[in-house]
Amino acid sequence: MKNYNVLFLCTGNSSRSILGEALTTTLSHGQFIGYSAGSKPMGTVNPIALLLVKEMGYPLNLLRSKSWDEYGREGAPHMDFIITVCDEAAGEECPYWPGHPSTAHWGFPDPSKVAGHEAQLQAFRKVEMGLRNRIEHLINLPVDKLDHLEIKDHLHRIHQQFQ
Question: What does pTM read for this prediction?
Answer without folding.
Answer: 0.93
